[in-house]
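Structure (tokenized):
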């Protein structure tokens, strides 16, 4: 197998004067889940459309399974399943009949319908009309359509968009199973940072068309060390005191202070400093920076932003 299931080399795309994707070098390894994150207009969907051959790059190359997409697009894309935006379904047909339509177009064996339904846990509802499905069931049926050709690579653009918490939970568990149980590499864009944090093995963060970070989730967290969370009776005075001493301080929405202190010795010095100023410290503990916090730091987002669309 190739080292990377997806590799782009200096991928670039313009729309008029706007540079949507700028010199993008993605590397998604085999049998993992790659979370592709970025704020609105960052270039995620444009990049995905180039991965699927739906639009051509102005410069650069897309490689799938170690082979250039431009050299044999049809053969390579047979090994790819995709769900981009809402799935196109026939509501008057049953779930099984929707899969049958696609199966005939692909020329795939009929047995793959039951296989796909089993993966997405829709076997019991396969003979109900799609108009009776919940939004989460429709999204899972769309995923079954993408899995019908038993792909090696699954590319998803916002697979949980519009789902309620129960539907998001179902989709999360399903996506987590795909690499481990079926050997499918998953590449997904999502605006739900907390969901990506729970399932992704690798992360790519794009902003303004450029890749800001790429690597494992643990590498991303290691690059942004844990902060020290401080609870004190006079946060404004404590902030001033710590700032005067050379510490960077971030005031959290809950009134707690976060300081990038990396060692127990740092924590002890900060505690002595605050207590020496007769401030009452009631909480002092390290906390790992969340993916959301890291994302907002890298993209320059505002503290109250919660999505990377």
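Design, position by position:
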């Amino acid at each position: 197998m190739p080292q990377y299931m997806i590799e782009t080399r200096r991928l670039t795309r313009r729309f008029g004067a706007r540079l949507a994707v700028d010199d993008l070098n993605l590397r998604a390894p085999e049998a993992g889940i790659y979370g592709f994150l970025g704020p609105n207009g960052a270039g995620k969907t444009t990049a995905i459309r180039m991965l699927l051959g739906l639009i051509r790059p102005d410069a650069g190359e897309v490689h799938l399974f170690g082979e250039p997409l431009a050299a044999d697009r049809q053969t390579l894309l047979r090994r790819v399943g995709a769900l981009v935006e809402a799935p196109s379904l026939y509501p008057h047909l049953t779930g099984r009949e929707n899969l049958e339509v696609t199966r005939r177009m692909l020329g795939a064996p009929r047995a793959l319908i039951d296989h796909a339904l089993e993966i997405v846990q829709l076997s019991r509802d396969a003979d109900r009309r799609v108009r009776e499905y919940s939004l989460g069931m429709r999204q899972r049926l769309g995923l079954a359509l993408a899995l019908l050709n038993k792909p090696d690579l699954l590319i998803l653009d916002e697979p949980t968009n519009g789902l309620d918490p129960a539907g998001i939970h179902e989709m999360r568990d399903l996506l987590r199973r795909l690499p481990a149980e079926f050997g499918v590499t998953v590449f997904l864009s999502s605006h739900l940072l907390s969901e990506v944090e729970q399932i992704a093995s690798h992360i790519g963060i794009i902003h303004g068309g450029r890749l800001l970070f790429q690597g494992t989730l643990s590498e991303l967290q290691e690059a942004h060390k844990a902060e020290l969370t401080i609870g004190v009776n006079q946060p404004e005075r404590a902030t001033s005191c710590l700032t005067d001493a050379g510490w960077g301080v971030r005031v959290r929405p809950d009134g707690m202070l976060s300081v990038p202190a990396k060692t127990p010795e740092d924590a002890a010095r900060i505690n002595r400093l605050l207590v020496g100023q007769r401030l009452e410290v009631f909480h002092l503990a390290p906390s790992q920076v969340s993916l959301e916090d890291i994302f907002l730091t890298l993209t320059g987002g505002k503290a109250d932003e919660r999505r990377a669309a």
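Reviewer-requested clarification: Residues 225-288 form a domain with the Alpha-Beta Plaits fold (CATH 3.30.70.980). The chain has eleven helices and 15 strands.
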